[in-house]
Amino acid sequence: MNPNSENRNTQKAVENLRASGNITIGNITQNINNSSNLPKPIGSHQNLPRSGVIKFVGREEVLETLHQQLQENERVAISAITGMGGIGKTELALQYGDRHCKQGTYSGGVCWFRVRNEDVGIQIINFAREIGLQPPDDFDLLNKVKYCWRNWQAGDVLVVFDDVREYEQIKDYLPPKEARFKLLVTTRQQWLGQSFKKVILKVLDEKYALELLMSFVGESRIYQEKEEAKKLCADLGYLPLGLELVARYLQRKPNLSLVEMRQRLALEHRSLQETSGDMTAQLGVKAAFELSWRELNQHGQGLGCWLSVFALAPIPWELVERCLPQEDKEYLEDVRDDFLVNFSLLEDKGENTYQLHQLIREFLIGKREELPYAENIKLRFCELIAKIGRKISPIPTQLEIIELTPIIPHIVETATNLKNYLTDEYFISPFAGLSRFYQGQATYEQALPWCEQCLATCRERFGEEHLYVATSSNNLALIYVSQGRYQGAETLLLQALQINKKLLGEEHLDVALSLNSLAGLYYSQRCYQKAEPLFLQALQINKKRLGEEHLDVALSLNNLAAFYYSQGRYQDAEPLFLQALKMWKKLLGEEDPLRCK
Fold first, then answer.
1. Which of 162, 170, 26, 177 is CA-nearest to residue 96?
2. What is the reported pLDDT for 549?
3. Cα 387–chain centre separation
4. Of 258, 257, 261, 259, nearest in space to 271 by CA
């Protein structure tokens, strides 16, 4: 009999017995199913840590992309899962490994090695011993690792290096460049190595963020306060770690409403700091961010603190450069890219704009406030933004609107949360700039609150009799006029006129402006007897203070002429129109569009 044939028959018999769950050794038949006394089949070897996730949500497409990346290379495939702290990099790698363990994708085993604060080489050798490898005792550590990889069991192998700070940590421990070894790395760094393919994790969509909450506290509790649940997810920036921590906190407090939870929520609150032993992540949100913070050099930390003063919105990089004019632009870019972007603390939004996640921004604000020059950062930022606000035209062009739109959130931040850091000189500039931006586009409903806030904050800071109060009253009155709120407008304009006369005298140019605004109000109400003397007074003051030939004089002449024209007083109107036109031609030239008004 052919011995090889006999061996094949014996092997076939063993396989049949295995399939039936029984195997005969000598005269003893044993059941091998679920036997803990026998070694596991080779393909089942894995050392994955336990996941604490109840329901894994929102990452199916990413898992598929990751699998495609790992399978497409003929040689060793290295894929890196990158993203900010708390985004779920480790959990994604764990879910991928567990899923493909069950599917038998990696018959040579799934190896999981922790990198941060761990000895990777020892972990590799210990796991190799579990699958029956015994590296020679007289080999040093690296040669033992190489021996293990060379003699690793047959089949495709998934090797996961979790939480890698830099490529040097794992370079010497990588398996040989064989296609059967698939390498997966989790890291906060965007640029760990040129040969790495990246999967950049983003925050969850609202739908999946709600699902994550429901997996811990139940659907009914979420649906009872669905709008608050959505707001809670938004407060957390849809960050998986933050959502899980808060969900576990709510799970422990079944009577706590989501409204109350939102009121308690802050980066320092224990709901975002206290982890559970069965969680995959063993760090709170702040501690997770702290690890990335420690990777920054001094300049990276300083730039992060500067960025925290901007609004929670995309930040045009040109604004950052204007805040830090003393810094070399190229070096500033290097600090941004090599540290903040690379360590996933700052997101590149494209078109030279960048944005902080809200929880990272809150973390950086805390770091900023520890700096001895924290107040100076806010003062310099507010001065820059206020200067921009001051230059906003009352009739912005389409190009100006496009250029200003990304800056508007940062002007809003200054006018709301940082107004105490505005100097007296620039105090009303952000408010007035915002009002002009919206008013110039005829969106009066958006302009109105900024005028109202400007007047209220001026009164609070300077008292009732101040020039800024007069200016703010005048600006608010003009919006009231556009809305037909004539009574409110008249009250404000009379107050502004009274303040200007008292503080500046009867013949100041600001008094002429107030007179002209009040005359315009009466004119729009057809109160012609009230309007005419005010137009005439404004014209007289402008002529006296500016001379006979000035653009403001021409404007006053034009206003008075239009007033006469509307009443059919054409003989009075014509010479005034002609005077204004002649003056505009002389001062602006024959082809300036202003004279066509």
1. 162
2. 87
3. 25
4. 261
Q: Which helix (H) or strand (E) holds 355?
A: strand 353-355
Residue 233 corresponds to which tokens in the numbers above? 């997810």
User: Is 374:399 a contact under the CB 8 Å cutoff?
Assistant: no
**pTM of the predicted model, to two decimals?**
0.84
Counting as low any pLDDT under 70, the low residues of the chain are: 1-44, 73-77, 194, 591-597
- Under DSSP, the state recorded for 41 is P
Which DSSP state fits 421? G
| Residues 181 and 76 sit within 8 Å (Cβ to Cβ) | yes
Question: What span, in angstroms and rounded, lies between the C-alpha atoms of 54 and 105?
Answer: 24
Q: Which two tokens stand for residue 178?
A: 């064989």
**SS3 track for 202-253:** CCCCHHHHHHHHHHHHCHHHHHHCHHHHHHHHHHCCCCHHHHHHHHHHHHHC
Residue 318 in contact with residue 333, Cβ under 8 Å?
no
Per-residue pLDDT tens over the stretch 377-425: 999 999 999 999 999 999 999 999 999 999 999 999 999 999 999 999 9
CB 162 within 8 A of CB 114: yes
Q: Are 121 and 142 in contact (CB under 8 A)?
A: yes
State the average pLDDT for the chain.
Answer: 89
- Cα separation, 307 vs 321, in Å, equals 11
Closest C-alpha among 64, 326, 295 to residue 199: 64
Pairwise CA distance, residues 104 & 75, whole Å? 20
One-letter identity of residue 63 = L
In the chain, the amino acid numbered 57 is V
Helix 89-103 × helix 60-72 angle, to 10° = 70
Distance CA 92, CA 204 (A): 13
Contact assessment for residue 470 and residue 500, using Cβ atoms and an 8 Å cutoff = yes
List the structure tokens of 307.
Answer: 């960025």
Largest CA distance in the chain: 132
The residue type of 62 is V
Q: Quote the DSSP letter at residue 46.
A: B
pLDDT tens, residue by residue, 158-204: 999 999 999 999 999 999 989 899 999 999 998 887 678 899 999 99
Q: What is the DSSP string of 267-329?
A: TTSGGGT---TT-S--S-HHHHHHHHHHHS-HHHHHHHHHHTTS-SS-EEHHHHHHH-TTS-H
d(CA 64, CA 79): 13
**Sign of the C-alpha dihedral, residues 247, 249, 254, 258?**
negative
Neighbour-count burial for 458-483, b at 16+ CB within 10 Å, e otherwise: bbebbeeebbbbbbbbbbbbbbbbee
Query: Measured between alpha carbons, how far is 555 from 519 in angstroms, rounded to an integer?
Result: 14
Q: What is the phi-psi region of residue 474: left when phi exceeds 0, alpha when psi lies from -120 to 50, beta otherwise?
A: alpha
Give the tokens for residue 359: 């929880």
CA end-to-end distance (rounded Å), the chain: 113
Supply 26's token pair.
């000598």
pLDDT at 586: 86
Tokens of 134: 């015994």
